[in-house]
Amino acid sequence: MKKILTCIIACALAAMCWSCAEEGPRTKSIFEDPTGQPSKIEQWLLENYTYPYNIQFQYKLQDIESDRSYELAPAIPDKALALAKILKHMFYEAYDELLGVEFMRSHSQRVIHVVGSGAYKTTTVLKGSAESGMKITLYLVNDLTPFSVNQDLLSDWYLKTMFHEFSHILHQKKDFSTAFKLITQADYVLDEWTSDGNTLEIALQKGFISRYAREEAHEDFVETLAFYVVKPDGWWEEQMVIAGETGAALIAAKLDLVKSYLKDVWSLDLDELRTIVQRRFGELDNLNLDNLLK
Amino acid sequence: MKHRLYLTLIILPLLFASSCVPVVDDVFDSPAAERMAAKQKELRTLLASAENGWLADYYPDKKAALGGYAMQFHFYADGTVDATCEMDTHLPAGESDESEYDIIYDQSVLLTFNTYNKVLHFFSEPKGSSDVDGWAGDYEFILMDITDAGDIVMKGKKWERRLVLRRCDAAFDFQDYIRNVEATFDAISGYGMFAFQSEQDTNVWITGTVVDRTFNVTYNDTDTTSVTEKLPYTITNNGIRLYEPTTIQNVTFENFVWNEADEKYACADPGVDLKGIPYFPPDYQLKYAEILGRWRLNYKAYLTNSVDTVEITLKKKNATFTLSCPKIFTFPYELTFDAAKGTIALTSQALGFHEPSGYYIRACAYAMDPSGSASYQTSVGTYGMVGNWNHDEGGERKITLVNNGRWTVDVNRFFGITLRTFTSAGTYVGTFTGNIGGGYRFTDMVLTKLDD
Questions:
Q1: Which of A12, A59, A64 comes nearest B13 by C-beta?
Q2: Which domain range does residue B223 map to?
Q3: Exposure winner among A166, B22, B215, B260, fewest CB in 10 A?
Q4: Quick one: which of B263, B49, B269 has its CA closest to B165?
Q5: In B, what residues contact A, Cβ < 8 A?
């Protein structure tokens, strides 16, 4: 009887397997591509971001990709392309030069979304944001003047954000030591970092390279790294003068831990990366920013 | 018991086997995805099919409180769009900018202007930390309907403002349309209040005060209940069109034509007996044209009584004046005109860049103690003074500039303006010492009309 029962159940289950398979899969998508061939800008982005790095560079504003709590405006395509060229030269190829292309292929954000306007609150303007290591959004692209780019502007608005957000990916994959978190543990202030009392001078004197670094240890870590890489010679030393003996010692201790973390975990020499980035600032004139599609 | 179990196990699979028999007819002819793709294609084709473009009443603002602005869009099959507006945006009125658009599926079929357009995105972008919303306009629009008349009815995705695209025929010329819009504005903008009634009936049905391009209307919903409502509108080539068809006490209306000869609006909707006539409240002061000309200005320069002649000239008809006196003021000032009350106002304002000092100069609202020993100042634009007309008593037409009510300090103070310097970033520096006539504090201003 048991054999009969087993047989019946097996047959019934087998019957259910094909009971709903009336139709085979479609061979052709129902969705038509209305735009046809990619535009010149899209083709450039495919060849320089998607194919080599598997990155989607989105210059057309997609509401679904943006933060709806802000009023935003899309990017001007020429400015978005200029920024794409700058980021490729200053950020992606800097890592490529140091560690080979496979490093960014493996670890970079998969989507770069650029927005024309800033993302404003009444006391702050957001220059960039990142989501779970998958996507980075850069704002204020329409304020970029491709024909008169300078290191300060590029550093403050775009490159620092790129190094900052990318460094979050690295420490999220392999966290840095608690020793870093303990250096100025008592002076992290979370959202209070925007308060009037947290001036840059005070932040430096307490051992933070920026006001934002006081939010919490992970932000402090990536701020220290990003500022060190993008700022020109002499800038760091000027900040240490403002920081005073105590603040400078704390920041120096943090920088040492950042360097050792990158060396030990990612085989990345931060000083070499900084040298490459600084050299590449001097090469921006060769990027044909006045003739974008060449 | 075992037999019952076996029987159940035999019957149960049979029930499953019959569950997939397609006996229910589909409600739709095709799957949702196919229908959505077809709708996207239909809208894309329809938009590009209008060779002379589409006319739209574009309403920015979360509540459409600023009213609407006429825009023309030309959509092309290659995914580009030209946008032109009747008002100055980042481009002068009438100039168009090209950008890209797409028809995507997001909640429903959606039109998105997804690269920057100097005309359209003027309304959607933030102006900075001091104005994070800007005009709060939409740039993504959900398709709601395609009417029998061929109009495309859409709704802004974020702020949900209605957008209707009306096909322009071959003879339509948007530049002509803009000129006529400006002429209509010139004709109607001097009136700040309207009373609406039927052509035959003298009873006022609703009254409306104009604020920007919106009627703030008041009417009795029942015998006892007074209702206020905002009716935003767009100025057309011959009148106005409301944001949407509006029904009040069973009368539905949307379009009005301005009749210059009779100085009234006539409802242009078929079968609707309704007119709007200008209405001047008892405390109305002076019309725009009555304020233009030369005036004597009595004022205190700090504590010293002073007098000079100033000129008030047209800046934007029925909206703003220029007050100038090159002898004493390096920069002219802007006076605003309230058409509903017939009053002028002088409030905090940016004056311009002063090259010799290298600073930007602002006139800041000022409240000074009569002794001159203490004062308040602010660059906030809502603070300042409003004109108080003397009803030509004593045969002289005088306007005294008094506290507009924003100051809540001692009413016995001297109210006026003070000139201050700022950096390009807007950081306050100090007093402006380079004024042509000297001084930087001007209070207790009284204007007396001079013969022109």
A1: A12
A2: 177-278
A3: B22
A4: B49
A5: 2, 6, 9-10, 12-14, 16-17, 19-20, 22, 31, 33-34, 37, 40-41, 44, 79, 99-100, 102-103, 106, 112-116, 121, 124-126, 128-130, 132-134, 136, 139-140, 157-158
- Of the ranges A56-65, B167-176, B303-312, which one carries the lowest mean pLDDT score? A56-65
**CA distance to partner chain B, nearest, from residue A66 (Å):** 12
**What is the C-alpha separation between A103 and A98, in angstroms, rounded?**
9
Q: Tell me how far apart the alpha carbons of residues B155 and B139 are, in angstroms, rounded to a whole number.
A: 10
Which of B95, B104, B96, B118 minimizes the C-alpha distance to A76?
B118
Alpha helices in B295-395 (DSSP H): none
Compute the nearest-CA separation of B74 from chain A (Å).
17
Instruction: For domain A38-172, give its CATH number from 3.30.1300.10, 1.10.260.40, 3.20.20.390, 3.40.390.70.
Output: 3.40.390.70
Same domain, B245 and B320: no
Instruction: Express each pLDDT in B379-392 by its tens digit.
Output: 999 999 999 999 99
Contact criterion met (CB below 8 Å) for A71 and B61: no
Whether the Cβ atoms of residue B56 and residue B165 lie closer than 8 Å to each other: yes
Query: At residue A289, does pLDDT exceed 90?
Result: no
Same domain, B36 and B49: yes
Q: What is the CATH number of the domain that holds B149?
A: 2.40.128.640
- Among all chains, which residue has been given the structure tokens 């905002």? B230
What value of ipTM does the predicted structure carry?
A: 0.81
To which residue do tokens 């966290």 refer? A175
Side chain identity, residue B443: T
DSSP symbols for A59-94: -S--GGGS-TTS---PPPHHHHHHHHHHHIIIIIHH
Q: B129, A117: Cβ pair inside 8 Å?
A: no
Q: Is A60 on the interface with B (CB under 8 A)?
A: yes
Cα separation, A56 vs A109, in Å, equals 9
Share the mean pLDDT of chain A: 87
Q: For an interface test with B, which of A4, A57, A120, A144 has the most B Cβ atoms less than 10 Å from its Cβ? A: A120
Fold of A174-282: Collagenase (Catalytic Domain) (3.40.390)
Six-digit token pair at A143? 């304020």
pLDDT at A21: 45
